[in-house]
Amino acid sequence: MLPKQYRLKKKSAFNATYRVKNSTHKGGVALFAGVLKKDADTFTRVGFVVSKKTHKRAVKRNRLKRLMRESYRLLLKSGELGESQKYMSLIFVGHERALDKNFVEMQNIIKSLLQRL
């Protein structure tokens, strides 16, 4: 599970990240990046979103969020996040094309999205 200091929770934080309009897409997953950090001591906060329009079953939506969260957690643990740590917040948005991906495919998608930033 992703530690508490890395989680993006507040609706205002999500809206502020979306307002920056800095995004990339790949394989059914979109990555929105917030503003650049002013001080390097703060953690980059991350949010994971799968809309109800993506799939009506909560089980499918939660599985996709779990895959994205776990791939990000493992990249954080191994230190392979690269330039993405310069941003205040990141939001991963899962779309319908990502529902049928397995863990390895999802990890490759998340890694390539983070390298694009």
Q: Care to give the gist of this entry?
A:
This protein has three helices and four strands; from the N terminus they run H-E-E-E-H-E-H. With 117 residues, it is of the alpha+beta class. The chain has one domain (4-116): 2-Layer Sandwich (Ribosomal Protein S5, domain 2), CATH 3.30.230.
N- to C-terminal separation? 24 Å
Number of helices, counting only DSSP H or I runs of 4 residues or more: 3
Low-confidence stretches: none
**What is the overall pLDDT average?**
93
Q: Which overall shape is indicated by the principal axes computed on the Cα atoms?
A: globular
Helical fraction:
25-40%
Q: Enumerate the strands of the largest sheet in spatial order, edge to edge or round the barrel.
A: 1-2-4-3
Integer count of domains = 1
| The level-1 CATH class | Alpha Beta
Query: Per CATH, what is the topology?
Result: Ribosomal Protein S5, domain 2
| Helix-strand makeup class | alpha+beta
DSSP strand tally: 4
CATH architecture descriptor name: 2-Layer Sandwich
Largest sheet, described in full? 4 strands, mixed
Strand content: 15-25%
Radius of gyration: 13 Å
SSE run: HEEEHEH
Layout of strands and helices, then pairs:
Elements: H1 11-20, E1 22-26, E2 29-33, E3 45-50, H2 58-78, E4 89-94, H3 103-116
Parallel strand pairs: 3-4
Antiparallel strand pairs: 1-2, 2-4
Helix pairs in contact: 2-3
Structural notes for this entry:
By secondary structure, the chain is an alpha+beta fold. It has one domain: 2-Layer Sandwich (Ribosomal Protein S5, domain 2). Helices cover 38% and strands 19% of the residues. It has helices at residues 11-20, 58-78, 103-116; strands at residues 22-26, 29-33, 45-50, 89-94. Strand 3, helix 2 and strand 4 (89-94) form a beta-alpha-beta unit. The two termini are 24 Å apart. The relative contact order is 0.26.
